[in-house]
Amino acid sequence: MARSAPRVISFVTLVAVVLCSAAAAAGAWRYFHKNPQNPVVRWDEYVTMGWVAWDSSWYMRIAQEGYQFIPGQQSSVAFFPLYPLLIRAVETLGPNVYQAGVLITLLCGPLALVMFTLWARRLTDNDTALKAGLLMACYPFTFYFYGAMYSDALFVLLVVTAFLLLERGLLLPAVLVAAVATAARPVAPAVVVGLLVRRLEWKRERGEKWTVVDFLPVFAGLGFGCYMLFLWHKFGDPLAFVKVQGAAGWDQNPGWRTWLKVSWFERVLLNPTDKREAFRLAAHAFFTLLALALVWPTRKLLGWGYAAYLLVMVGLPAWSTKDFMGMGRYLLSAFPVFLTAALLLRQRPLVWRASVAVGAVSVIVLSWAFGADYYIS
């Protein structure tokens, strides 16, 4: 009897949450005890500490203090509102702000992987869906699904659910879920384009004519638009989240230096003064180029809709980043690549097994590094 792919992924995800949380807690313990003057804390607090680092502080500030925007300085408007709004809501139930953020990720991350597996099974078969789910569950940066106080798990859960609903012919619910998703991350163009192209393609595959209703996916960007209206009302600048990217420390100003990745070439190839940083940036670039290389195979295997979604989802941040930093995490949103990879590796089982094995080790190691306050993504 064939194993149910969603059930297997549910079990794998549970194991991953336990192992990665333990690794993150161990990293937090190491980081915390570098200073012998730090007070003694309970063991369970190390789990929360292990999953709270870097951008987590921005979400904490938004949840507790609201948004602020100071032109030319790093400001919280760079982070979209859905995740901190949910943190604030969960706080009302008793947890503190950090516990609330971790709890949301612990709920959304595993659900996202299960929904992804259901989506993959609808497009292919149970065995391929299982292999795709394992590739995604063991992708090195999927530790952001296992507890990290970041918005990625929430966004991926919503956008995969939207596409699953679309595949089932439930257009209006798909658009509504997608509209909520675009309030979580600044990638509305990818969601809108992907849903629209896939809907039109879906109708054509069934020999049905297009109607005005089939263009409903253009409204999937409402969450994105509402945030822009909020910024316009509060700060007088609907594009504040874009402009703040050029602030000192982030230094993501649009221009040829950014578009040509001059900083990446300087720090990785021409003058790599920090070998650890060079390796990190090279890894992010590798995953980015690999994802872009899978756009055309995705078109052939999954259709134009998912290829369009993938191209915009990967292409926009890749174009706007100066050094590919963070792209490894952003690629979690490019979920079709994992199904495409599983399809391509059906005739190469050794490669698939090696990918899963190396990924499984990597995701635990990176969980420890995140908890130990190393800059990962």
From TrEMBL:
Short name of one Pfam family: Mannosyl_trans2
Alphabetically ordered keywords of this record: Endoplasmic reticulum, Glycosyltransferase, GPI-anchor biosynthesis, Membrane, Transferase, Transmembrane, Transmembrane helix
Coiled coil start-end: none
The protein's predominant localisation is endoplasmic reticulum
Please tell me one Gene Ontology term that the record gives under cellular component. Answer: membrane
| GO biological process per UniProt | GPI anchor biosynthetic process
Q: What topology does the record note for this protein and the membrane?
A: Multi-pass membrane protein
Point out the signal peptide segment. Answer: none
Where does it reside? Endoplasmic reticulum membrane
What is this protein identified as?
Answer: Uncharacterized protein
